[in-house]
Amino acid sequence: MSTETDTPSPPEVDWDKAHDSPEFKELRSRLRRFVFPVSALFLVWYLLYVLLADYAHGFMSTKLVGNITVGLVFGLLQFVSTFVITGLYVRYANKKLDPIAEKIRTEIEDEAK
After folding, report:
1. pLDDT tens string for the chain (113 positions)?
2. E strands of the chain, at which residues?
3. Residues sharing a CB contact under 8 Å with residue 112, sequence separation 6 or more, in sequence order
4. C-alpha span between 54 and 97 (Å, rounded)
5. What is the rounded CA–CA span in Å between residue 26 and residue 8?
6. pTM, whole model, 2 decimals?
């Protein structure tokens, strides 16, 4: 028994043309405008947390309520900031990236027919 099926090969697409299109350049530019600043901001925030944990023991061990310390709150805020960044990216992608990506995909599919 043969497990191979006779499926047609996908149509040829000029990926260089798609890559060089103004829409793709705009998509890439919009992605970078979001990703680079947010990544830098998060990296600074994370490094601040690490540096405070390593060099500011007194500050980080300051009790706020019961056994909850500043360090624990900062650590939990790392998770919160990750979720916030994810939510911001999803909203940004839905508004600014997905419409352009959909247009590019449609153009590529139409040319391949």
Report:
1. 556 666 766 667 778 888 899 999 999 999 999 999 999 999 999 999 999 999 999 999 999 999 999 999 999 999 999 999 999 999 999 999 999 999 999 988 888 77
2. 63-65, 68-69
3. 10, 11, 12, 13
4. 39
5. 33
6. 0.79
